[in-house]
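Dear H.,

Thanks for agreeing to be a second pair of eyes. The structure we're designing against is below in token form, covering all 452 positions.
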């Protein structure tokens, strides 16, 4: 415990705790719990929580401090008991990327293989997209179900897709919003506590994690991503949830489309067996791992086979449609995607020279999608479901001068020049074909790190 410990039983001076972390001291579990409890009760102001978060961001939290933070955030709300739902409940979480629509594909695949998927997802954040915004682009789709409906829908369809309710890790919800505006997002212990407090509250038995690394991820280097993956797995296992993480590349957007409806469209194509290679590779690996953890396959490989069968037979798409209808969605647009409204304006980024696309900056592309209307600059902004980006070309492709690389869709009249500039800076064309970067690099579980 740091110098100035409890003034009285479990009452601390917040300034003392902030100072201790600022000065690189270790905090006790009680001190961390105190900060989270006080903040949850509105007895600690945003400015003190922000200072605490920045001190933790700069000086880190060790293993005990991280678990104390996770536990305090987890118990700031309810921990759901889903034991009345038969089966091993498994969820998946991605640390966030651009064009990452994998949850939309894998949840119905896994559910159709008999594994319940109780999924609580988030909204878009900064340059990254969010599952809830994508789902809400289906007219009428409700993601704000209460916990009673959450259980009912899960029992009926083996899956449910909702947003964080007031009962689920409310401290995370508030702290996350604060981190977003105080430059304290990209911290391994803060991300780990944020993700795991939500996931552990959901009532799951096992978890698959997709830890993104690269220009469009919060973790820019392999080493940082590995540290985050190890921490997430350690917390999951500590809470008796079997947890498997994959480190996957986020140097270029995943798939062909970025944007809310555009990503639903691509997911529908994927569920009909016509998805892009990178999207389907990640989907089948993560779905296969969930099917294995859910006890419906003897190995991840067998789980992957079942995942392929679920797509090929059409049963995963049927589950997705049934779930969408149950949650209020108009499924006619899933059957006939051409009936969906189109963006009013369209413009292209063209190759400025001949050569190979050697690099994209996925962060810049995510920010351009936001500018087109697909994301939010403030919490109050509304996302435009049809705004977004089509990656006509991907890394490694050869292009001639003047050929389209990226197509933009928007209802905003005045964004073409600013997005075009952003996108020009996001592409590197070179005379040599770049070396291929593997999409999936490592698996991390309780036994350690395995190269893929
Ligand atoms: N996703 C989360 O839920 N929390 C973070 O802190 C980062 C990504």
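And this is the sequence the design step returned. I haven't edited it by hand at all.
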């Amino acid at each position: 415990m740091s110098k100035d410990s409890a003034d009285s039983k479990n009452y601390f001076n917040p300034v003392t705790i902030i100072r201790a972390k600022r000065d690189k001291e270790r905090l006790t579990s009680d001190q961390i719990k105190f900060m989270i409890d006080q903040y949850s009760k509105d007895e600690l102001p945003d400015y003190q929580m922000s200072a605490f978060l920045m001190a933790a961001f700069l000086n880190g939290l060790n293993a005990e401090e991280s678990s104390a933070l996770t536990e305090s955030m987890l118990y700031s709300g309810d921990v759901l008991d889903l034991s009345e739902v038969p089966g091993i409940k498994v969820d998946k979480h991605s640390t966030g990327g651009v064009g990452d629509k994998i949850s939309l594909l894998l949840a119905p695949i896994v559910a159709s293989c008999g594994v319940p998927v109780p999924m609580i997802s988030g909204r878009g954040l900064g340059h990254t997209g969010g599952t809830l915004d994508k789902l809400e682009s289906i007219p009428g789709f409700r993601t704000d179900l209460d916990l009673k409906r959450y259980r009912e829908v899960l029992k009926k369809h083996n899956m449910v897709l909702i947003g964080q309710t007031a009962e689920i890790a409310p401290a995370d919800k508030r702290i996350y919003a604060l981190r977003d505006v105080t430059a304290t997002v990209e911290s391994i212990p803060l991300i780990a506590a944020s993700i795991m407090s939500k996931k552990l509250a959901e009532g799951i038995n096992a978890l698959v994690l997709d830890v993104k690394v690269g220009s469009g991820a919060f973790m820019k280097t392999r080493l940082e991503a590995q540290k985050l993956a190890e921490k997430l797995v350690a917390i999951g296992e500590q809470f008796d949830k079997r947890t498997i993480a994959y480190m996957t590349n986020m140097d270029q957007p995943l798939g062909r489309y970025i944007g809310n409806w555009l990503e639903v469209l691509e997911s529908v194509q994927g569920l009909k067996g016509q998805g892009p290679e990178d999207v389907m590779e990640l989907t089948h690996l993560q779905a296969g791992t969930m099917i294995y953890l859910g006890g419906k396959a003897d190995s991840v490989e067998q789980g992957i086979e079942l995942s392929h069968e679920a797509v090929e037979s059409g049963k995963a798409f049927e589950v997705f449609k049934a779930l969408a209808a149950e949650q209020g969605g108009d499924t006619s647009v899933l059957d006939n995607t051409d009936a969906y409204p189109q963006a009013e304006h369209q413009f292209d980024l063209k190759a400025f020279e001949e050569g190979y696309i050697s690099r994209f900056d996925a962060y810049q592309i995510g920010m351009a999608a936001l500018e087109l209307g697909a994301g939010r600059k403030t919490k109050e902004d509304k996302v435009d479901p049809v705004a977004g980006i089509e990656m006509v070309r991907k890394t490694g492709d050869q292009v001639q001068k003047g050929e389209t690389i990226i197509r933009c869709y928007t209802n905003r009249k005045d964004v073409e020049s600013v997005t075009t500039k952003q996108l020009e800076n996001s592409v590197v064309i070179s005379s040599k074909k770049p070396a291929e970067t593997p999409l999936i690099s490592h698996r991390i579980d309780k036994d350690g790190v395995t190269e893929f």
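Two observations from my side: The chain has two domains: 90-166+175-336+441-451, 341-430. Residues 95-96, 122, 176, 185, 190-191, 194-195 surround uracil (CB under 6 Å).

Warmly,
E.
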